Amino acid sequence: MAWTLILFVATLVGPPVPPAPLQVDRLYHDVDGPVPVTVGPVEGVPVELVLMAADGSLLSEVVPVTPGRLDISTLLPEVHGLKRACYLQCIAGGEPVGSALVIQPLLGRVAPRTEQARRPDGTPYTRIVGWGPAPDEDDAEPDRQPAPVSAGLRVYLDRDVVLHTTHGDIIVAMRPDVAPNTVWNFLHLAEGGYYDGVTFHRVVPLTRKGHPFVIQGGDPSGTGEGEPGYWLPIEPSSLAHEFGVISMARGDAPDSAGGQFFFCLSRAGTARLDGQYCAFGYAVDGATTIRSIAAVELADVASGRPADPPVVTRARTVPAPPRTPAVGRPDRPVAEARALRPVETQPDRIPR
């Protein structure tokens, strides 16, 4: 009877997760101060640490360490000079082990510059035309921006977000190097249960030109107007909008995002969103789920309201896979499928 109970519980909770080779005591660390982490234990093999970018390019030397508690700001002083989030990876016996630590510099915000523009149908909207202060006409270097001021570091375990939906699962890799605060907001909402039970309340399978567009969710009210009680400042993400990329939905004001997100359905349909919306991650699994949601029957084509809205039954975070030097993640973004048949009668769309 006891063994039956143990097996039943193990079936429910899954196999035990081994402790991460890298652990950090706290989330925030002072400017130029120590950054204590705990390494290991890893038995019988040499252990090293390395700092790398999202694409796997090395930002430091590979440093041998002894498992235990240590200060990475002493071993890798590069951490206090970072200009964007990067990854601290543990290497044991020549192989990456465990999730990396995300090391995010807390830099001053770069705000968008905007102008009023009009869409092809004549409706006005606010267009982002640049970032940071407007250049001085007399400035010999108009593209130069003031150096951002650092307020220290945010350090946490690299995590993916799994969206369990009524059409299947989607596993999303985060990109804190291009949109660190948007990533942190999404992780916070996913771990806090905000997305549990929300619908994909808006599905736009095709644009006016016949290109697959977006599936949008993240609103607990299901109306397309619900948010988590705050607006999220937009970030100048360089991640291109293409199939499987996740980005923040917003209103006309650039800083009006909060909790709603959308997945892109094609590069052809969403390339125009680059620089206007904040892309912050991409699906590494779940292409079939994304396409299935995009194919649901619509009760109202104009608004994109599904007849039977797909549901995110649960959102959770899981440890991200180890990162390999010179390679990065072992997986890749999901691939775009053959484009849907063009339909010229669809109105032009925006992800809000």
**How would you state the average pLDDT, rounded?**
89
Q: What structural category characterises the helix and strand content?
A: mainly beta
Give the tally of structural domains. Answer: 2
**CATH class categorisation of the largest domain:** Mainly Beta
Global outline: globular
Radius of gyration: 22 Å
Per CATH, which architecture of the largest domain?
Answer: Beta Barrel
* N-to-C SSE string, H for helix and E for strand: HEEEEEEHEEEEEEEHEEEEHEHEEE
- CATH T-level fold name of the largest domain: Cyclophilin
How many strands in all? 21
Superfamily (CATH H level) name of the largest domain? Cyclophilin-like
> Spatial order of the strands in the main sheet?
14-15-17-16-18-13-12-21
For the record, give the distance between the C-alpha atoms at the N and C termini, rounded to a whole number. 55 Å
Helix content: 10-25%
Low-pLDDT segments, ≥5 res: 1-18, 339-347
Q: How much strand content do the residues show?
A: 25-35%
Instruction: Note the main sheet.
Output: 8 strands, antiparallel
Can you count the helices? 5
How would you describe the overall organization of this protein?
The model is unreliable at 1-18 and 339-347 (pLDDT under 50). The chain is mostly beta strands and 352 residues long. Strands 14-15-17-16-18-13-12-21 form an eight-stranded antiparallel sheet. A six-stranded antiparallel sheet has the order 2-11-8-7-4-5, with no helix packed on it. It has two domains: 20-131 and 148-157; 159-319, Beta Barrel (Cyclophilin), CATH 2.40.100. It is globular, with a radius of gyration of 22 Å. It is 11% helix and 32% strand. The chain has five helices and 21 strands. A hairpin with a 4-residue loop joins strand 19 (298-300) and strand 20 (305-306).
